[in-house]
Design goal:
There is one protein chain. By secondary structure, this protein is an all-alpha fold. It is elongated. Helix 4 runs antiparallel to helix 5. The C terminus is likely disordered.
Length: about 80
């Protein structure tokens, strides 16, 4: 079994995938394509937070928790 197969099949990654990752990813990609994401990042932490909150509202969920937990789970020990 390859390392990538083990990684994708791990309980930690499955939890992220089950937590509507494709929906969040689509919103992030759309924001990137439109330049909205780059503007939020370029304009600093406050605009980034506003952008994350607006994504959460559009998805009717608390996206900031998703983004923080995903980053922690995927990057722990990087």
């Amino acid at each position: 079994m390859s390392l990538i197969t083990q990684f994708v099949g791990s309980p930690e990654v499955q939890e992220i995938l089950d937590d509507h990752l494709p929906e969040v990813a689509q919103v992030v990609l759309n924001a990137y394509d439109s330049g909205e994401l780059q503007n939020a990042i370029k304009n600093g932490h406050d605009d980034w937070q506003k952008w994350v909150k607006s994504v959460g509202k559009s998805l009717k969920r608390k996206v900031s928790d998703f983004m923080i937990s995903s980053k922690t789970k995927l990057c722990y020990g990087c």
